[in-house]
Amino acid sequence: MGPFAGGRLPAAHPLIDGRTAGSPLVLAARRQPVPHTPVWFMRQAGRSLPEYRALRAGTAMLESCFTTDLVVEITLQPVRRYGVDAAIFFSDIVVPLKAIGVDLDIVQGVGPVVKEPFRSPADLGRLRDLTSDDVLPVLAAVTELTKELGGTPLIGFAGAPFTLASYLVEGGPSRDHAHTKALMYGAPDVWHALLEKLAGIAGEFLRQQVLAGASAVQLFDSWVGALPARDYREYVQPHSAKVLAAVADLDVPRIHFGVGTGELLVDMRDAGADVVGVDFRVPLGEAARRVGNEVALQGNLDPAALFAGPEAVEARVREVLSDAEDLSGHIFNLGHGVLPSTDPDVLHRVVDLVHEITLR
């Protein structure tokens, strides 16, 4: 086992030694009073930043994710540039799968591609448990980042079992998830066995990031909006709940986000989230009506609105903040990731605007 195996948070963890426990992000996630609404952006560390493109030049995505100094620098870039209230750890949802030996790559312009898709009971043997030794360069980056970030919390993340399974079963990105649903409906025993394994891998990946210093985690279920609520509850929710339960005893805020999941918000809440991420399709007020006041909400400016010009952007930001006025806890974010051609100066202005409007 690696150096981060164990149970409760170490005494030097930022949530324990006081560095991040009172940060706006952690307070908002716990539905406590905040000095201003915290803001960060999904995919804030990435292709929209010229300094990111310069640093990544000539280095493959997965190689970057396993190179400690690159992970540290890329994660810090948007914190320096924008003044966001949290750093999102630079990685990819398939990193733990690569770490345990799955033959996959991230193909530019396509996404994760799996050489031999998983579609039979025999394929389950190709997955093993994740240990901290598998991801030591990743965890070293987490530890280094918590030193560099000071009072700014680091958000760790993992891909949810359904989305990971969809890549493994389809062999890559898919619009209709035909092979995934065929396995789910036609061989439910194989499906549940697959998701059980993936939940263990994702849960351990989250846990190790927290033990190494992350102050919050986000579980991304990018493609689960392809399912109706009944199927989500039967085929997915128990496995997502297992992932989130893997860090429950560490008392770290848990954010759960998916795309096109307006009809699943209550079920995603019930999987064990402290914060439910809302994409741009559902107003925050409506999302709050559905999930109630026992969780905070995150979101949900449409990423495409950032291209609309200063006045339109400000109007949209104010609209989101108005929708969030009566929430018990709110973290400002986009309703999906930053688009690659987004002007970084616009993102900086959004951060400043959110802070100015909500300063208490």
From TrEMBL:
Biochemical pathway: Porphyrin-containing compound metabolism; protoporphyrin-IX biosynthesis; coproporphyrinogen-III from 5-aminolevulinate: step 4/4
GO BP terms in the entry: protoporphyrinogen IX biosynthetic process
Uroporphyrinogen decarboxylase (URO-D) domain boundaries: 38-47, 155-171
NCBIfam families: hemE
CDD domains associated with the record: URO-D (cd00717)
Protein name as catalogued: uroporphyrinogen decarboxylase
A GO CC annotation given for this chain: cytosol
Matches recorded under Gene3D superfamilies: 3.20.20.210
EC id: 4.1.1.37
Database matches in Pfam families: URO-D
Locations listed in the record: Cytoplasm, Cytosol
Entry keyword annotation includes Cytoplasm: yes
Keywords of the record: Cytoplasm, Decarboxylase, Lyase, Porphyrin biosynthesis
Subunit-structure text: Homodimer.
InterPro entries the UniProt entry points to: UROD/MetE-like_sf, Uroporphyrinogen_deCO2ase_HemE, Uroporphyrinogen_deCOase
Sequence similarity: Belongs to the uroporphyrinogen decarboxylase family.
Main location as per UniProt: cytoplasm
EC class name: lyase
MF GO annotations: uroporphyrinogen decarboxylase activity
